[in-house]
UniProtKB/TrEMBL annotation:
Keywords: DNA-binding, Transcription, Transcription regulation. It comes from Chromobacterium paludis. One of its GO terms (molecular function) is DNA binding. This is LysR family transcriptional regulator. CDD domains: PBP2_DntR_like_2. It holds the Pfam family LysR_substrate. Transmembrane segments: none annotated.
Amino acid sequence: MTISERDFRAVDLNLLVTFLVLMRERSVSRAAERLFIGQPAVSGALGRLRALFDDELLVRTAAGMEPTSRALTLEAELLPALQNVQAALFQPERFDAANAERTFTLAMPDWVEVWLMPRVFAELRRLAPRIRVAVKATDPFQGAAMLERHEMELGVATLPERPGWMRSMPLARMGFSCISHEAGLKLAGPLTLQDYIAHPHVLVTYRGAFQSGIDRLLEERGLRRQVQYTTQQFSALPSLLREVAALASVPSALARHWSYCQNLRAHPLPLPSPEIELSMFWHAVKDRDPALEWLRGVVESAAHSAPA
């Protein structure tokens, strides 16, 4: 259905509100009190209403003001219409998770998916069984561009930069641990700094570099480790460490997870660990999307309940 702009030129929304209050109160003075305006203003509005609808609308009688049949018809039609307008303007839209059918597109590095999404997905299955989730791979340097291209709705990663249009919320801070395979690299005791620099390393890096913040910490001590293999995927590490006697430094939450399910051994990093901050981020145009607001709450709750 289309609307004709010309039909509304003589109509003031406040005039229709005044009409409905007059119909409810059947009194100019009481309507003025409810509207917080003077009686002359209400009488003037009634005159304009009579001219607009070419009908007396409310007629003075000994018992008070009585509506005409035209006024009763208008009230029955206008009241639900203005209630809908009021709801659209002033009541926030609600997201009915239990009955919603929607696909959310998220993006995050693969290790974040391993750490976070099992809890998120389990909660979505419990609260919103018809919701679908598509998770894409991203890294700290691609997130903003993916949002701008509308390739995702919500991201979780470390954020080296935050454009002005980006909204974000910190989720967790964590350090690093070192991992090795039980059968591949046998250590006599706890991992020492000498062990750390004596064995080759596998490094996850998104830009192909053979150094990270850990190497800068080692350089401050006059030390250097042997990074012999780099990859962009944390998921490649278990298979690599199973075949090669090497070490890898990964976020502590991932090391804890792999020590449980991948037969990998997690070691405390034998030097002060740099920390990373994981953030949830989205585009400002989606700031008030009720469905995405709800999803952000689920992700935040899952991140706070997950060991970091």
